[in-house]
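From the thread on structure requests for the teaching lab: each student submitted one protein with a one-line request. Submission from student K.M.:

"Model Cyclic nucleotide-binding domain-containing protein from Oikopleura dioica, tokens only."
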Amino acid sequence: MKLKKFLPCWSKDKNTEKQAEPETEHEPSIKNSKISNTQSNASSVDDEPDEEELEMLRKYQAKNSAGRKSVAAERYNPEDDDDEPLKIVPKSDDQRKRLKDVSDKIMLLNRLDEEQLTNVINAMEERKIQVDDIVIKQGDDGDNFYVIDSGKYDVYINKENGPEQVFTYDDAGFFGELALMYNTPRAATVKCSKNGTIWSLDRKTFRQIIVKANAKKRSQYEAFLQTVEILQNLDENEISKVADVMEEKKYKAGETIIKQGDEIDADSHVYFLISGTCKIHLNIDGEEKVLDKVLQSGQCFGEVALITKAPRNATIISSEDVKCGVLDVSAFERLLGPCKEIMNRNIDKYEEELNALKELKISD
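Reply posted by the TA:
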């Protein structure tokens, strides 16, 4: 069973998102309650996950700050909708800037290209929310996706003894996507507890742009990952899991991606070069050297330090604009186990190359 049945078709950047929305896909019906982003498993009632998938789900839910209930519904198929004219809501320059700043921190929008993000911003509507306003109510049909600009919102889920607050959004976050993706009622109730502003995106535009874009991007990731030599031991199902949690990062020419000497921590990544080229820089006895070797599309870097837990042994700098797929430490350790043997074999080769550089002339 593919992990895609559990995870939404996007990945979250923990560096840019402080709080992962407890999606209003699981909203409790409560008045005067807070918004809860309980992330749900989109699993079929007939399928049973294996232990690895369950562990991945637990990690995913933990990263999103709250666990979602199961959503026993079929994933929305973006190809079912015909392309129609996109909605445009007039905005001032200030509104566009604020919305762009907020959107930059939202995981769900990370895979959108510039045109797609512009279309989403065009279609979003600003809403002023007052204390005690109910933004979404558990059990209602999903009509909008919401991005928080400011304010405080509490999430409630109905229990046997009444509504229970499970999460609070404070000036950041998003919610409401699961009901739109899986055609399910709201799984939680979200209530405002401090006046603020949110941006709403209607169901049709959400599906027309965001769901389609993420489904397409995931397919592209799968196709790309199948060409990466170091992943040759992964089967189709394992590749799909990697694609589901892989995030995309872009770097301008001359930008440092990895710095020699940096310690490995929870925010460290392994990188798969999707497009562009990079140079390897070494600091040898205080002198900066540049290797003749060029990293190109389809190559992986940064995995040695993640395996050995040693500091980064080289600096990687983009020699032109590049695009990388990245996996954090957790995903790397969980998903790339079948590749560890190949990676371990390469460690000795890398060490030999680095040691040889100290004896050779390296181009500046």
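TA comment: The chain has two domains: 3-210, 226-357. Residues 57 and 184 are 20 Å apart (CA to CA).
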